[in-house]
Each structure stands twice: as structure tokens, then as C-alpha cells.
Amino acid sequence: MDDYACVCARDGVRYMGKDCEELYDACVFVDCEGCTSELGTDQFHCPAEVDECASGPCVGVRSECIKEPDGFSCLCPDGFGGEDCDERITDCMDEPCLNNATCRRQLDGFRCECMPGFRGDRCEEDIDECVSQPCQNGAICKDGTNKYHCFCVPGYQGYNCEIDINECASRPCENNGTCINGKDRYICECLLGYTGTNCEVEVDECESDPCENGATCNDLMGLYTCDCVKGFSGLNCEINIDECESAPCQNGGTCHDLVDSFECECGDSGFMGDVCEEDIPECASDPCHHGATCVEGMNGYTCTCWPGFEGLNCEVDVDDCADSPCKNGGECFEKSDPTNWDTEWTFSYATAAGYVCQCQPGYTGENCSININECVSEPCQNGGTCEDLVNGYVCLCADGFTDVECEVDIDECESTPCLNGGVCEDLVADYLCHCRESTEGLPVWGGRKCAVELLGCLDHQCQNGATCMPRLDGEEHRHTCLCAPGFYDDYCSTPTTFSFSQPGYFLLEVPVDERKKRSAEKESPLQVCLRFRTTLPNRLLFFRGSTDHFFILELVEGALRAWAESREDGVSLQITSSGLVNDGSWHEVCVSIAVVERAEIVLEIKGPGCGKEGCRAEYNTDHAPFLQHHQLTQVYVGGVPEEHLSLTKSRQGFVGCMEDLLVDGRTILPQGADGPELELGCSKREWCQEEPHPCSYHGDCIDLWTTYKCSCHRPYYGQDCSQEFSSWTFGHESSASFSSFDLLAGHSENFSVSFFLRSLKPDGVLLQLQKAELGGSEEAEPYLTVYLQMGRVQVSAGGQSVRSSVFVCDGHKQELQVELQQGDVFFSHTGFRYYLGSVTPVTPWEGDMVYVGGLPDEGMVSEWGGQFKGCLQDVRLDNMHLDVGAWNNTVNDTAYIPSDAENVLHGCISDDTCKAEPCMNGGECSITWNDFTCSCPLNFTGKTCETRVWCVSDPCVNGGLCVDLLDGFECVSNATFDNSPLHYTAKGSLVAPVTNVTMDLRTRQENSVLLRAWRGAEFLLIGLLDGTVRAELHGENSQEPVAFSGTQRITDGRWHHLVVAMEHPEQEASPWVITVDGISDGSSAPEQAGALRFLSDVTSEVALAESYAGCLGVVRVGGVYLPFTDDVTPPQVLRFRRRRGERARLGCVGVPVCHPQPCQHGGTCEDLFHLFRCACPPGWEGLTCETNTDECAPGPCLHGNCRDKVGGFECECEPGYGGPTCAQDLDECKDSPCLNRATCMDGVNQYTCICRRGYSGKHCQWNHPPQTCENLECENSGVCRDALWGAECICTPGFTGHRCETEIDECLSSPCLNGGTCLDRLSFFQCVCAAGFSGPYCETNKEAQRDRMPWLVVAIPLACGCALLAVIGLIFMLMTARRKRQSEGAYSPSQQEVAGARLEMDSMLKVPPEERLI
Known about the structure:
Elements: E1 15-16, E2 22-23, E3 36-37, E4 44-45, E5 64-68, E6 71-75, E7 80-81, E8 87-88, E9 102-106, E10 109-113, E11 118-119, E12 125-126, E13 140-144, E14 147-151, E15 156-157, E16 163-164, E17 178-182, E18 185-189, E19 194-195, E20 201-202, E21 216-220, E22 223-227, E23 232-233, E24 239-240, E25 254-258, E26 261-265, E27 271-272, E28 278-279, E29 293-297, E30 300-304, E31 309-310, E32 316-317, E33 331-334, E34 355-358, E35 363-364, E36 370-371, E37 385-389, E38 392-396, E39 401-402, E40 408-409, E41 423-427, E42 430-434, E43 444-446, E44 452-454, E45 467-473, E46 476-482, E47 487-488, E48 494-495, E49 498-500, E50 506-509, E51 526-533, E52 539-545, E53 549-556, E54 559-566, E55 571-576, E56 587-593, E57 600-606, E58 615-620, E59 634-637, H1 642-645, E60 656-663, E61 666-668, E62 678-680, E63 699-703, E64 708-712, E65 716-717, E66 723-724, E67 727-730, E68 738-742, E69 750-758, E70 764-770, E71 784-789, E72 792-797, E73 800-807, E74 814-821, E75 824-829, E76 832-838, E77 849-852, H2 858-861, E78 870-877, ...
Parallel strand pairs: 79-80
Antiparallel strand pairs: 1-2, 3-4, 5-6, 7-8, 9-10, 11-12, 13-14, 15-16, 17-18, 19-20, 21-22, 23-24, 25-26, 27-28, 29-30, 31-32, 33-34, 35-36, 37-38, 39-40, 41-42, 43-44, 45-46, 47-48, 49-60, 49-62, 50-59, 51-56, 51-60, 52-53, 52-59, 53-54, 54-55, 56-57, 57-58, 60-61, 63-64, 65-66, 67-78, 67-82, ...
């Protein structure tokens, strides 16, 4: 089997041999002595031998003459025979044998070997096995292929129906019935009491329901019994027992017989009870109302009423409030009304007579006749005088105060006394101006009213960027210098900045003499403040104190750590900042230690990362203070002597800059400090910001203040990261390659393997570890292998394997790392770390062998996917390099030297992938890394330009979308049909049988023929029947057509995708199915049919849309497209050709149903293909939106009347309901009508108050029992008074509540405008206005008033002038009227008085004295 044979060509120069590598020698194949031949041909010559074939006796170009010892014979080609191959014969090439017979070729023709069941020269005759009539007992014989089937008549079985079936064999008769066997039947003779075909039914004597009056019938064998209900008897329970027979009713009662009981009718006997045995008590029905007492009488009763009630049954409640006894608007409540009292109280009708008055505010007394004196509480403040009013008072304020209770100090700022933008602050009978801060280029103002320009900063002496602040000292102008960081003194002329370029320190002595006189309460904390900048993470800033008592601030891992400790007291406090401060920026820090109350340390930081407010951390304990000033007089700045260095965690002196050093609030200047490493100022070179980049852009630059270092990114190394570890190419041009290394040191079981990989080969060994004694040998068993499988990294150890899910063989360089931690495997890629699973823990030992990129033994490497092909770079085991060129690099102290290497090339080199000229059809090959790309001509595509692209030449000249095929193209389009069919033929090009037909269609025609294909009696028909798909097909081996239908209606005017196909096309026969829009719609099951082979015949035809109106899209028969257009003839072999002269209307075009617009009232017409639909606006409906929708028809208003509107409705709700549909029960409890924290129960258009204990009344407004002033204490100067419903507190203004306990917050309503702040005062509020606003509510804009001043200057004089003219005109009119009346004489009432002229004049002018006299 594992061999091959080459069949050498016979045309042209001929060859022979296993690989056809030798020229053909005809003498090798003939038995001829002295044979000579012409190499490369079949010509040879035998001496003294006649060549009968030399004359070419065999006829035909493909016939071959064969020499034989006694002559020759002709080897004829297929289809020819005879001695000279000149006769045309039928042979096996013509497939003459039928019914799957085997054709055997003979010299003069053929011979057919028939399948069982067939005979004849061509096996054309099916042998009829039924001729011998094998079937017995009247059975029908059905002939088959080499067999027959007998269809037995009922009652017989067996292959030939020779066995008579015994129907009694299964014992069908039940209940001991006797079975009698017959022909195809049996009869059961039943015992008494049973019936049915199999005696399975017991005769039910109760079936006729003989028992009466609800009795229960019990079925027995041949009889029944009745169980009667109570009150009946008899065989069938037909007799009703008479319970009145014993005369049970007493005292003349009448007895009425019932079922199993009786009833006594007592009538007017005066008795009651079941048998009229009890005398009737008239008071038992409790006829008396309102707690009255019922007194029994003869055939009657009498009610004794409580005071306040009257009537026969005391049903009338006398109205005590009818005469309106409550004065001054008081509300009257009857005591007898239960709704006015709490249900938990014990209500007594003995005290229910009378009324209670609820007075209006300001009144009290039983009838609300007493006016309350609100001035009793002396509400007026600041010396104001109180005058009593009804339910109120008025305060007459002393000078300087105002408002209701004279509590408001008059706002002196209202007159805006502050000038030049100053903000006025109101004081008591005074004000204070806050002048505007200085702004560059604008004058600065001061003085009481900000009216004095401050000149103190003119020619000021502030230096070094200090800010000058002018001020007024009496009448003298002065200034203050605010220094920038790093400077000090009155003019900011002294620098405070110093630096350490190497570790060092200087010592300060802190004096304590001044603190000896201070008390412990006034003792200031121990504090050191400074500003610093550095880039180093672990440095000491200062050390204060001694070995036994110290206070430290240092940098630890870039964070600030403060530490205070007293070894004598055994107390230690530590605190660390959360952020890093070694970023080279300036940071300000203060550390404080409390010396009073308790032990506490506070760390405050300002600078980058801490925002405006800065960062603060503190730590305290309940321990008493343990450090004092006299213990910490020595301060070491920047470092510490060697004997104290062990107390620090950083263990290194400070390198960097400091400034603004303060110790216990005292500024320390560096100029007088003594320290050899101390330098004044701060000089810093920004190493990491220089160009070119100090780390060559291949690493992170770390600033070390006086120098820098580079943390290189792999695979770079060197001081400036400019050097790169070499890449090594493995498997170049498919060669076997590897490199091996001896481990010179052992590693732990927690180790890692990392490298850069570039590969396109998905399988191969990357790295393998083998034991020292077996390394490299065939017996070697690797204990760890890292390899590629399917483009993913896989790790194998101890027979266990895990694999990553990341594909890494994409041809790009990628950094990968595999970590093993006690058997757990982790995989790192592009910054992500994945857990892969667990393998057997392994440990690399000294002397073990490491193989990289492959193995020396080809047999060993196949297990791991073969040799690796690609590039590896910077391969590391932990931090040790496995580099082929390790002996040449400068970091070989961290590298293993290779022990062997084979076919490993320096650099990352690609194969010459274009050497084999892979690009076809004129494509140009370009090498990419271990791959190639082909630049193809315009009409070819694919990886190697192997695929012809036809559509680029735009062959669909008559319309349609061009779609490329593997061997040609199609012009796909839609078309509109109106009973205009198209006919097609495949011309025999369909090689495979047709197993499916697909088409896209759009129509509204219910019945039509979509597609019909035929050849003789064989056919395929697909159409629409009542809107659903109907399919019929008839194949060559089918006796009857297979017809089946779908269920989904697809004549809705939408596009649908239809598929009619074999369910299992790989089988000879299977059900055919209908699929519509991807959903199964019908099936021919259980009927089956085979593929349609007749469409491969040249005589077959296909007709499309024979009786169809609608649109068709892509139609395919057997996957081959039926074109609608005449375009360039496509090159593919498989295609249909349309009958000449037939054309289709391209595009899907329907009737323009939306023109003209059929939709009314603004409706939108939607074209649904031969149908339209109107999308009506709200409020309209109907086919064309012609009908106004009655939105009230469905009754949307649940509790109200509906009123229809266009596009909506409106509900008029019943009382108690609301909402758009009156579905919402309005919450009458929403306004909290119930008082005293009572529970409000909402009802429909009403509510009920459930009072808490101690309250009653409709609103739970009364105390019960009424509270008295003896046990009620009014707060905040409230006055208590006793009322009928209980004691109440009359509150002073500004307070409220039952006991006047709550101060009213007048600021709740936010009365202050324009950003003013509201201050709640007692009984009033005060607005503190923002700058530029004034008034009680800050409603006045001072700036706007100031802007309007120029207009007022013009308007006021103008208004005064107009007023003066009006006065002069009025005086003139008065004088004229007076003169006129004096001249007319006496006044006589006339029509003027009737017409109202007198009244008009009276309304305009003062009546002159002459008229008043009349």
C-alpha cells in the first residue's frame, strides 16, 4: 500500500521506469534476439522476423497492432471490433446493461451480468416471482425485485399466508367467559351478571336510577339496595316520614312537616322558640336609643331617656347648638355627637347633654366671650411698648429698632455708605465697610467708607516676586510684603532655599527658655514645617530629639512617614501619607505633635495631588502626651549622625532641595547653618526631559536627582537602552534547527520562561527542559515542554497539559511569558495575565539541558508539532538569557552559554517565498515575512491570483447586478411579470441532479404557476394555491406524482424567499420540504421522492411565470440562475439559456395606488404593492381616514362622563375621582385634615380620622379627657388657658405647637433674593445681602440704581417743572370758576342737579364758600 506507480505518457517522446525517468526501450518488452530499438519510441527491429504490424493492418487511429508468434492481433478502441477493428459494435461504453447490471467487455461486444431478479441480454426483464402463485388462502401476491410479498386476508399470517390465526390464543374473554374461535373472529359466552364483547362489563342494576329522594343506590350481583337519606323510607325511599305526627308544637303553635324535621308557627301567641315554648321579651330587641333604659310591660315596653334626648324610643337628640351659644365666631359642637369623641374613650350618655365651643384665635371662655390679652407674655423687645389687639398685638418700638416685635436693628447699610465697590456689613447702630481687594492697574481703596485711595504700595520695596498689600495706619499710608515661597523678612529679600547634592545634614538647637513661664494649657505643639522637592523614594527629611525621645519625618517608598516615640514611656505614634511626593515638584509639609490633653500626631501636606485644601492625616491615642519641648531641642535637618540612623526606615540622608523651614513657628534661615554638604539655593538638572531622550525611547527614565538611570523595555538593554538583544531565525527555508544550553545553576519550582516570538507556523517546539543524565538522547523524557499547538502556547509537564486561548502565530512580534508557581501555570500576553490551570510541579536543576526552537532528534520533535519555524528574541529562564550569541554580548553574566546550535541564523530572516513563483495568471509576487502577496491583474483575484474576476469588466450591459462566480458571472435583477412567461433550457449542462429550487417573489395573486419544468412524463411544478405554496413533482422512478403544500399565505405584497428542496439530498430518496423566509412551511412526508435527474437532459425545459402577475427576484434551479436580461454570454458551463424573443420587464413596478393621494385628513399613504394603506393621524380611522374616531366608544372614563374630541377625549369625573380617565380615587387625606397625629382613612369623596389615645372630635382636635393647665406647661413664655375641650397654650409670636415648643422658621419660604442669606430670628427673619444688593429682601440692585442716577438727574427737575405748571393751571381754573359763580348770583336747583353735573363738579373741585351758603 505504502507505494506508488507512475503511468508514463504515450504521446511524443516516451519514457519508462518507476519515475518515468528513462527513455523508452521497446526491446525490453519483446522476446527477440538481436533486437534493436530507437530510444524514446516504440520502434524496434528483430533480425530475420517478419513484422506483420508494419503494414498497419488495424483500422483506426486509436487501434493498436499486437505482434504474436503466429501473426498479429488488433487491440481495438472502445466501440469498435472485428479482426481489423473496422466494425462498429455496441460495447460497455454505451452503458447497454439496464437495472444496475454489470457490463463485461468481450472481443466482439459485451456481456451483461444481471442483478438478482432480472434477466435478458441486457437484463431488461424483471422476473415475476408471483407466476408460481406462492401465496395461499386467497392472499394477494405483489412482485418485487428478486422477491415477492404476500398480503394476507384477515385471519391468516405467515410468509405465504399459510397459517390460520387462532383468535382465542390471547384469551380475550374476561370474568371466566368461554371463547369460541371463528374465521377472523371469536365469540365470548359470558357468565350471568356480565356482558360485553369480552364479558368485561358487569351489569349495573343501578343504571336505571331506581332510588328516589336523593337515596344512594348500591349495585349487587343481580340486584340493588337503596340507602335512604333522613326523613324517607321504603324499598326505593319513596315514603316521606311525617314528623308532625307527635304534635310537638306547644302553646297553640301550628306544626308544618318538613323533610326529616318540622317547623312550628307561633303566630300571635306571644311565645317563641323551636316549639313555641318561650315567652317573647319586648326589650330584647333593644328598642331604646342613645343608651336609654328599656322597662318591660304587658305586651309592650317604656324607654327612660337621658337628659338631652327625647321621643318614644329616645331617638331624638336635642340640638344644644340650635341657639348659637358660642360668641365671636366660635364653633359649637354637641357633646352628644359621637363623631366628636375618640372611639377609645368611654362615652357616657349621663354627661352627653350640652355643648362645647371651639373659639376663634384670640378668644376664650365657655362661650368664647373673653378676649385674650396677647401682651401678657411681653413680646415686644428692645424696650418696645405692647398694645393688645384681637388675636394679636402691636409693638411701638423704641428709636433704632423696627419690625413686629422691635427685634430688627435698622440696617445702616441700606443707604450704601461704602464707596468704590466696598461691601457693607451691618452692625448694631453702625456698619463696617470691607473694601475691594487690590487689582492690578486699578487704585486700591481704604478708610471707613472705602473713600481713601491707599498709596502705601507706591514705590514699595518688596522683592523677589512678593505681593505688596497697602494699608492705612491712622492717617499714614503703609504696606506689607507677602513673600513668595523661598523668601523671608519684611521685604522678602532673604532666600530660605537650600539643597543637598549628596547625603548630609546640619544641626539646630531649639531654645526652651521662653516656654518655662507658660502654663500647660497654653503650650504650643511640637511642630516642624518645610517645603521640599526630590525624586528619590527613600530619604530622611529631619530627625528631632535623641535616641530615647525622637520625632522623625522621612520618605519611604515615595510616601511621607512621620514617627514619634518615647522609649522611656513605651509610646509610639506613626502616620504615613497616602500619595507619593518624590515627583520632583515642590511639596509643603507640616508635622505636629500635641503636648497637652492626649498623644496625637498630625501630618499636613500641600502640593500636587492634594488640591486647594491640602491633604491631612492624623493619629491619636488616649495616652497622655509623651513628648515635651525640652526633650527635643536638637533638630537634624537633611540627615542624622550614624548612631541615630538605625532608628529610621529610609537609612539615607536627604538629596534634594528645601526651603521655608519653620521649627515650632520660628523661621530657620540656611545662611547661618553649618554643614559641609549644605548648598544655598536649588539647582537641578532635569535629566529625563532632555533631548535626545536619555533612554533612547526604549525605556523609562528614572531621575536620581544628581543623575539618572534607565529601566529598559525588553528586548533592549544598556545604560541608555540603545542596545537590543538579537533575534534568531529557526527553521529557515524549512530546515531543522535548534539551540541547546546547559543550566549552570538551579532554579526553584517557581520560575518563568519569557521570550519574543514571531511566527506563522501554528505548531512547533519553543523550549524544552530535559534531565542532565538523559539530555539529548532518545531515551530522554522531557519534564517541561513549551510548544505551539494550533497557534496557541501549550505547556506540558508530567503528562499534564494546559493551553492558552490567545492566538499568537499572526506573523507579528509578541512578548510572551509562562510562569510556573508550584504547578500553577500563568500566561502573560500584551499586559494581560491569564491562569491556564495546573500541571505537575517541576524544578530546573543545575546541569539540566534546555532546548530552544527545536530538538536535535526529528523523531522526538514530532510529538510536539515538529520543529519551530520563525524568530525568537530575548529568551529567558527567570532572568537568565538563553541567547545563541551569548558569548559575544556584554551581559553574559546573566546568560547561559549555548552548548550546541544548528541552522540558527542571526537576525529575523524571511524565507524566499517567491522562489516557487506562486502567483498565477500574470500576478507579481512580493515577499512578506515568511509569506508572499500577489499583485494580481485587474480581472483576477485570490491569494495566488487563481480566481477570475468577471464583473470588473461590467458585463451586465442591459441592467442587473453582476455577481462573480468561480467560473463565470451572473447578472442578477428583479423583474415584473403579467402573465408573460419566460422559457429556459440548460442544454444538458446540469451535471448533478436537481435537489432544490429557490426564488424570491412578491405578489398578491392568490392562484398562479410560478415555475414548471418537464421532460416527457417527468415534471416539476411550483405554484400558488389560495395564497399558499403548492408543489408537485414526478421523477423517472415514481409511479404517482408527489404533491404537497405549505400553510403560510405569501400573497401579501411583501418580498418572500421560497425554497423547495429535498430534506436529505445525500440520500437516493427523501421527503421534499417547503421553506418560506427561512421557516419550514410544508413537507411531502411520509411520501418520498428522489432528485430530479431529467433536467440534465438536453430536451428538458423550464417555464417561468406562466400564469403569474407580480415580481420575481433571483430564481435558481439546482443552484443555477435563470437570467432575465440579454447580456454578454457568461463563460460558466452550468447555465440556463432563455428562449429567443422573450423579454422581461426589469425592476419591480406595481400599480401607482398612492397617486392621486387617497388618504384624507392628513393621512399618509403607504404603497403595499397593488394595495395601499392609510396611516391615519390621531382621531381618524377608516380605509381613507374618512371617519372621526369616537374615543368615548370603549368607555375610557371609569367614574365619569366622556366627551369626545378630535384625536382624544375628556373625562368629567364624579366627585371624589380624578385623573385622565377618572380612575384615580382622590386622596382627601392629602391636605392632612386630621390633627394631633391622627390617622386619616381615605374614602370616596370623604375621609375618616382615627384619633390617637387622648384625642377626639371629627378632626381629632379635642383632648379627652380634657387637659387642664395644672398638667400642661407652656414653653417659650406661652400662656395657658382652660377651655371646655381642654387646656391650650396661647403662644408668643414666633412660636407654635401644642406647648409652644417649636420656633417658627421664617426662612423656610426662602424670602431673600439675589443670593442673599436668610438668618432666622425670633418671630422674623433678616436677609444678609450679597455685594451690590440691599433692601429687606435684598431686592434692590445698588449698581442698577447707580447706573440710573444720570436719568434721575434729568427726570427729577423735569417732573418738578411739570408739577409747578399743573399747580399754576389749577389755581387759574379755581379763580375763573369762583369769579363766574359770583357773577351769576343765587343758585337755583335745576336740571343740572338731576343730570349729575353737581356731582361731577364735586368730585373734581372744592365747593366755593358762596355755594355752601346756598
